[in-house]
Specification:
single chain; 242 residues; alpha+beta; 13-stranded antiparallel β-sheet; 6 helices
């Protein structure tokens, strides 16, 4: 990060009143052009060039974060067994597999403060953005936004869940999409699941678009295709009350 970096700011034409009307009707909304073009491009560069990604996955009661070197150091049969266990669980239970960088949890680490993604985090917690979050959701008590950066490589996914965690006080989830020129054929679609198990709606991770959806709400991220030419990149988290 340098003094020449653009200051994160809203893109032009963001109408909170119109956006709120869509959110109030459906509980979710897709907002293109949320950031200025320069700040979105710099955020993409941060995710592509700066972050020390870790492989992020869960088991029944634990969360794991593996350095790339740790994963590569596994013997072939060890990687195969790990992938098989993840896929077996994904068939029936809540499971995820992707790479992440925990923005909120990294704020006090000196070496990470220079990353531009931290500037995006500051913007998400600025008075202007918090006002925007309250306007969109209608919840005046929203006081903070947490964040993680995510990178979905081919084969990565997030199975159906609703984001409800009793002690987290989540009002709504958000995804700031930073994948350039993404196509629906490549997977990585944010699917919303209705009570009959059908896909009610799906959002392609369009570059510089912000998705917001109420919590709880069933959703999933479809598996990124093996022929996707690049990774699905985003910054995501929740609007919360303290």
């Amino acid at each position: 990060m340098s003094t020449a970096d653009p200051k994160p700011a809203f893109g032009s034409g963001i109408d909170a009143g119109v956006i709120h009307s869509v959110y109030a009707r459906t509980g979710r909304v897709h907002i293109p052009g949320i950031l200025t073009a320069k700040s979105a491009q710099r955020a993409l560069q941060s995710l592509e060039k700066e972050l020390p990604w870790k492989l992020h996955f869960n088991t029944a009661d634990k969360v794991y974060d593996l350095d790339p070197a740790q994963y590569k150091a596994l013997p072939d049969d060890g990687r195969e067994a790990l992938n098989k266990a993840i896929h077996t669980r994904a068939a029936r239970d809540f499971q995820y597999l992707f790479e992440n960088f925990p923005v909120s949890d990294s704020l006090q680490v000196a070496q990470f403060k220079k990353f531009y993604v931290m500037r995006i985090y500051d913007f998400l917690n600025s008075p202007a953005f918090l006002k925007f979050a309250r306007q969109i959701t209608g919840v005046k008590e929203i006081s903070l936004v947490d964040a993680q950066a995510t990178r979905y490589q081919p084969g990565h996914f997030l199975t159906c869940h609703d984001d409800k965690v009793s002690d987290k006080q989540r009002v709504a989830a958000y995804v700031l999409n930073l994948s350039p020129e993404w196509r629906a054929d490549w997977g990585g679609i944010l699917h919303f699941i209705d009570d009959d198990g059908h896909i009610a709606e799906g959002y392609v991770p369009s570059f510089n678009a912000l998705n917001i959806f109420s919590v709880p709400q069933k959703h999933a991220v479809s598996c990124v295709s093996p022929f996707a030419p690049s990774a699905r990149l985003s910054i995501s988290g929740w609007f919360r009350v303290s």
